[in-house]
Design a protein that fits this description.
Helix content is about 75%, strand content about 0%. It is mainly α. It has a single domain (about 5-270), classed as UbiA prenyltransferase (Tetracycline Repressor, domain 2, Orthogonal Bundle), CATH 1.10.357.140. Helix 10 runs antiparallel to helix 11 and helix 11 runs antiparallel to helix 12.
Length: about 270
């Protein structure tokens, strides 16, 4: 479930928190905040389990993943499937008090994307885009619960999250590029080739631009834009890390994305969006 590696959990949580504060004009119901925080932790865990099931024949051939429980034989496929079902049921029980047609439909779609994402690495040239949509399903769910619908800002936030996911997960994929080429997995780091760094910077720019436009629509104060400026400085730091495509430095850039998410969230709160 990767609970000992909370980095990706936080990367999923930041856009959820952005949506919670934007959709509630800066004053979300704290019970709802806890429901979505716990729900995202559980769904991320479920996604990790199904990913390991799907990749159990690939992981033993990749240095970073060869010691995962399924790859090393410490856990059986049956045990992993039982855990996955338990996690999905737990996530469903969390949202039960808020269930309506919108939320139920989105919950089913989110579960489907969590199950199907690991298999997109066999067919899609940029599976990171699919991952960005899967990671962003909490955004329309938040708006469905708090506003009963999907205003235009939902799709702007989703767009920002997709671009951000492509950026940071390409940095992650650059760390595994050599192993992925050997075993035939498709990733954006392979697809973008020598344009990988330029594409990452483009995606960061589109993400930050989308957030600036959203801040304008939501009448955010100066602190919000200071948060965007700070996030831009972090992006420049990422460029310094990844420009020579050294795997360890690319992985450091990936981990550093939590500072971007946290800085934008601080700007949303302090900017009274």
């Amino acid at each position: 479930m990767r609970l000992d590696k909370p980095v990706v959990i936080l990367l999923v949580l930041w856009p959820t928190l952005w949506a919670l504060w934007f959709s509630a004009a800066g004053a979300p119901d704290w019970r709802l905040v806890w429901v979505f925080v716990l729900g995202m932790v559980i769904m991320h865990s479920a996604g990790c389990v199904i990913n390991d099931i799907a990749d159990r024949n690939f992981d033993p051939h990749v240095k970073r993943t060869k010691d995962r429980p399924l790859a090393s034989g410490k856990v059986t496929v049956r045990e992993a499937l039982i855990l996955f079902v338990v996690l999905i049921l737990a996530a469903f029980l969390l949202i039960l008090p808020y269930l309506d047609v919108y939320v139920f439909g989105l919950a089913v779609a989110a579960a489907f994307m969590a199950i199907s994402y690991p298999f997109t690495k066999r067919v899609l040239a940029v599976p990171q885009a699919y991952l960005g949509i899967a990671f962003g399903f909490s955004i329309p769910m938040v708006y469905a619960v708090q506003q009963g619908g999907f205003p235009g800002e939902v799709w702007l936030l989703m767009l920002a999250n997709v671009f951000w996911t492509i950026a940071y997960d390409t940095e992650y994929a650059m760390f595994d590029r050599e192993d992925d080429l050997k075993i035939g997995i498709k990733t954006s780091a392979i697809t973008f080739g020598r344009f990988d760094v330029a594409t990452i910077l483009f995606c960061y720019t589109m993400m930050l631009g989308s957030m600036v436009f959203l801040g304008y629509l939501k009448n955010c104060g100066a602190f919000f834009y200071l948060g965007i400026v700070a996030a831009s400085v972090f992006v420049f730091y990422h460029f310094i890390l990844i420009r020579n495509r050294e795997p360890e430095r690319c992985f450091r850039a990936f981990l550093h994305n939590n500072w971007i998410g946290a800085t934008i969230f601080a700007g949303i709160i302090l900017g009274k969006c």
